[in-house]
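FW: tagging you since you asked about this chain on Friday. Here's the raw sequence from the shared folder, copied in full. Didn't touch anything.
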Amino acid sequence: GSFTLSLRELVDTDLTKCTLLFQHEDRQCDFFGEKKLRWVNAAKLSLLLAQSLEKNNSGRFDDERFRSDSLKLSNFSVKLACSDSDDVTFDKTCQNDNPETEDDDAESLEYEMDPFNATVKTLDFLSEDDSSAEKKSVTPLETAEGSAEGEGEESLSICVDQDSYFGIEPICNRNPVPYDIVTFVEKASARNVHWILLGMEIRPCEDFSLPENSLPISQTQNLQNIGRMISEVFLPRCNQNLAELFKRILDSEQTSIGSESNNETDLEQRYSKLQRYKEQSLFSGLLESGEYPVSVCRLLSDMIDTSENGMAGNPFASLEDVIDDLKQMAFHPQLHLDDPEDWFFSSTLRFGRGCYGRTEQVASVLKVASRLEGNNGTESPIPSECVEGIFISGIAGAGKSFLIQNVGHYLTHQGWIVLGAKFERGLEHESRRTVFSVFDKLVTTLVSMRDGTIKEDAECSRHVTNVLSKALDRESMSSLANFLPSIKELVDNVGENHVGADCGVDSDKGNSNWRLIFLLSSLLGAVLDVACNSDRSIIIYFDDLQWSDSTALALIFEIVISMGSLSHARERFLFVGMYRDNEVADSHPFTSQYDSLQRNKCVNVTSINLPSLTRKDVVDMMMTEMRLPRRILRELSDIIHKKTSGHALFVVQLLNSLVRDSLVIYSPTKNRYHWDCDQLCNLQTCDSAASLIVSNLSSLPSEALQHLRVLSCFGMKIHHSIIQCIGSSSDMQLGAMGIASSLPILIDAGIIEESSDSIIKFSHDLIRSAVYDGIAVDQRRQIHHRIGMFLGSKTVFGTSMQHDSIETGREHDHTQEEEQNDSAVLPLQLFSIATDHINEGSVLITDHSQRARFAGWNLHAAAESLKSSSFQGALHYCKNGIAFLAGKVWTEDTHELSCSLFQGAAFALLALGEPERVPQYANAIIENVPFERSFKAQYLLIRSLETSGCENEKTVYTAISVLRQLGFDIPYAPKLWLSYLVGGVRGTSPSMVVQRMRKTDIISSRYTINTLIDQWGGSVKTGDFKRDVLNICDSVILAGMRSRSPYLPLIVCETVNYSLEQDCVCAESALSFSYFGFLKIWLEDDYKEGHRWGTIALKILKKAKHSPFIRTRMVLYYVVLPWSRPLRETAQDFFEAYELGLKFGDMADAYIVLGCYLTYSLIAGDKLSSLQAKYEIYIKQILKYNIETAKMAVVEQSNIHLLMGVSYDSFSIFDGMICDENNLLVDALSKKNINLTLGIYWGRFFFDFWMGNDSEARKWANKALAHVKFQTPLNSIFLWMRGLISFRMYRQGKGANLFIEGKEAMIRVEKLLEHSEHIFKSKALLLQAEFFASTGEVKIAKESYEKCIRAARNYGRIHEQGLAHEMMGDYLTTILEIPGSTECYMNAHRCYMQWGAVAVAEKIQKDHHLDLSDVKHKNKMLKHGRVG
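HL: got it, structure written out here
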């Protein structure tokens, strides 16, 4: 029910026994003891009282009954509602139990209980149109604008403990009637009940009358009157001394506002009385009693002790300020009501420990996190089609890092796994290592969970290990361990994968960026897979993305996108990126990659910007740290905001400097911090946070400042072990105690911080930059040089002068990793740090031998970077090494070193996707070393030309010149060797090609398949020039295939001969073996021998562990092996090659073979609806990595839509760049893109063929055949389709030549049938049927049609079965067997519908007037799940 009590009655109850709570608070308030609980309750009741008066013109009414000087606590009525604590929700009408007041107070309330805390969330307050005869001023408990933190409350609940007893005695003279009071006490005493405060009324004083000639109430008087009422709420039973003090002050106030007197004696008496009364101020009296909090003493004093001679410290200016003070006490009692301990004033005041002014931004982050947590529930999950990504931008010092750290701390306590890292200015080459550090933390977290005492954590970790072991094979796991050594602690029996090391600079496929994406995505995906079942989520954040290199950005974003494609991952994963928007221009690599990510449909990007702090934000910060009300701090905050323009870090630094310089200091007499605003206004301050930081450093001890400068030379952070390593070495000139002695001073000053993982870091980059930039350039270089020399001396590399090649740095890998320094930092990492410092101080080194020595250091560091696939780092170190040799490059003593450095730079650029810059370094090697030692550089040069995609002919000619010097017999002007397939008649191969192939046959005859496979142990040893030669051949063959080079068969034969004669059969030989097999099939019709060479190549590839060689597999599956395999098996081969390419990171080639998979699936007759779904999924991925393949896939998808009778714009995926197929064809012809042109022609032929548009189909077939240079299974199938058109058009009287054309196609297909029955048996039968139909042999024709139908059905090609039915129907129609032809057309319709070619089926129905209501036909359709 609902009850009504006066505020006086509520205050007179024992407020220490009940808790008044706002909606957002926890019902159990155990923080406060009984005494403190009274102050919290009193503050909340006072807040409601003040808000009630504010809504009614601050108590200054025209109606004298509502004047503040006429009101008492008994004039304020409080309405409460009661419900059982066991109720979770209820909808009912709560009415006053008192029948006498039922008409006035009965209200209909709807309760919506929060199932998580069982608190009332929304309530209907007292109605506005109260019909009472008396006018009531009703104040619902809304708390208006909310607290300073932006909180807004809608209701106030009173929760009474079961054993509470108020001891209220009915007072009959009070209003309302005592019935409510007794009932309230009885219910509260009986059991635990929820009490909801519904509203507050101001009841007028009917018997109050003002004296004649009384003056209107002033603002000061009004606040004093309100202060009087609030004092009764806080001090209902104060001691006698305080009571007298209140009486004297209040009496003096009344005296001071009375009517004027001309009696001089009265004036003297009043003056004497005032002096006597003011011997003790209200503030000091309340404070000395020791009974009340300082904030309450200040509140009451500043409201009441405000007369002309009052002693209030900061008198209130308005009731709004009073309400604001009370809000702080009510909403944040720990800060603004509870008196701080002595340490608060004795310790140094420090600002910047809270996330101020970022309420909205924090809420945005937590909203996304909550959305993910909502997906974790089983009751009402929120659909999620993409992974969540948040990007926080702002200028330096805006508080981005601090915000995410606070959010991360909160989420950690909610069970999230929070991982993050920060990129550093000037260390872009270390970006990839920064990314690795996050995933390494993930693995170490899992290890800690496994080894911990919590059973659920241990089980979760073991489950992750199992899932990861299934996702990655042994080889992949070993590769992952190269990047994340901690994986060996998580997964047992993970061996070393030395492929990257063994392959040196040529392992671009084994350790590429895409390989990393696959490995790291698999790791994260495995963790998130388990997270779905263990109620865990993961947040990964990267700070200062503007300082990451492009490859690391691509790595991060691709991993995020890959999580978006996994349903279990996107429901448990949140990515957060932070960057400085003022440092990211349009040309910055982050801009383009961020824009691409925003357009990606797998990622939902939330953008958050951190603006400058407002004046309110600044005052909120000061209120929290200084524990003072807003009104006292307002002027100071305005000064601070004006001087800093709201720059967050500047605000913090300026405030801390004011405290340090005692311009803000604690005043014992005022019991608060004190300052002089006039002095601060005139204070000369720095114009930026950076300059202020520099000026603040002057207060540090000289030794601490010197140590701080040394720390700044290490960057943003340094491992504590390195500080220990440096110690008090005399070489470092750090004093007797070393840097460690200054750490407490620097930490206490807020300059640096120490994390739990023993990392010492600057609290902000601006601080580090200010310190570092403040060091003189020469001194800075000297510090770097001393650090580099000292750290280098602690590693074997620092004392070694070896610098033979880029592989030399790997010779010490395993021994160094096993030898752990006391520093807990790996020697190789220590050496990289030392090299960085040496590079910074390079101008100090003038001795040539020393510069050569440090160039060698850079070479070793580059080798280490390559080991972890950090190509940007390798390039950085190689370029620095070359810079050390400036003027002395290619001298006798630096020749080998120069060669290795240039070679490393060339390879790194190739791996980074910048082939146009490779010739600069590769040509330098070629020009300065003997030919026999330049093969690696030659390969890098040729590979860069081939990779560029538009230099195919140049690639061929460049490679040929190299191969000729090696003794490859390649003529300078070979005759045109390409044979064209025209009308099924194949020309004669030139004698030169035949001779070379015969020579290769003779050489290869000495080997069996097993002999060749057994000869190879995996790969040719690193450094062996034979492998470089084969790599050159590999590149030139690929370029020759794309450019249709006349040299191609000669190069292939010579490469096969070289592999066999030089005893270097390896994975790099497989491409030449595959293409030689193709030549045997194409030029000699020797399918058996072609298949043999294909089998050899495939077995070689299966032994290659470090690379998938996707392009070699593409040649095998496209032109060599598919002749002897069903089309669907070949399609599956392509799909497995695609998955293998993803696994090894060969994305471009992987998506080319994915396109081949789709094409073969279409030709094989897979259901069009299923194929359409696959195209829809895969085209988006293909477009991202290979636009040419995507173009071809879109053409095929468009044809599928047309056959299905679906209206869909397949070209919309290109976002207007390519409007339609005609536009695409014009582009292909202008660029002489033969493959795309051929694909468009065949696509148009394919559609017109099935739709029966024979003339159009034949036109496109002839155009396509003009571009066909060699025979493939697909080309042969299209040739078969053209043969069918020829026979059909011949019977229509379109020309006798068409019969010859059809017959030639039949002969060719019959020849292919000898080698590929799976593909061509039904096709040969259909051509034979059409041949016999054309020659008038009716019986044989019918039999052939029937045989073809059975063969197509047996091989599972429903589309060919339908075609055979249709063509048989056409033939039967011509010989006037109408019933038979109708049955054939009905069967054709059924087959086409099963295939999904609705448009073809409807055309047959329309052209032949089929009655699909036939029961037999309809049953057949239903059997196959379709209705005609």
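FW: The chain has 64 helices and 18 strands.
HL: agreed, and The longest strand covers residues 193-202.
FW: great, closing this out.
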